Amino acid sequence: MPEAPDWSTIPAPHDDGAAAHLPGAALPTVPLASTAGGTVDLAALDGTVVLYAYPRTGRPGQPLPEGWDAIPGARGCTPQSCAFRDHFAELRAAGAEHVFGLSTQDTEYQREAAERLALPFPLLSDADLRFTRALHLPTFEAAGATLLKRLTLIARGGHIARVFYPVFPPDRNAQEVLSALRAGLAGEEARQGR
Length: 194
Fold this sequence. Notes:
Blueprint: E1 31-34, E2 39-41, E3 48-53, H1 77-86, H2 88-93, E4 96-103, H3 107-116, E5 123-125, H4 130-135, E6 139-142, E7 145-148, E8 151-156, E9 159-164, H5 173-183, H6 185-191
Parallel strand pairs: 3-4, 4-5
Antiparallel strand pairs: 1-2, 1-5, 3-8, 6-7, 8-9
């Protein structure tokens, strides 16, 4: 696995308010193709769901889109996924019954990354942007594609209890989610409607 970049040389994203509407929102009933096969309807899952949305994964030996490192928050999909992989058992022990990654790349493309990175959880594809549009998730355009801005949701009972946005640096996000789960903040924010 490549080492994480020097985050001090990458422009950090700023909170543009594009995720302010998400706390307390209901997850939409949208089946998402999974690298584990079949589809997943996040709204129908019981228990606590951790969903991290990322712009795109690259493939070894293939160039990133032109200007990728200059887009605030774009760089870091592999380090973020690997951090969720490395903290997966702890996340489960802290109460996350389900962990998923989400991007607008197709399942076949995602499957290569899931296998190469040995992810113990599925990646979900929103290639048709139905989930993204239903939740009004923040996006940006790069290389002719609509990509998700990096954010992470903790949901419980089909509703979003906690939102991490913007996420930077991405390789520390899994630890932030783990700390929130251990502190019980996700459930508290859900009860308070935040």
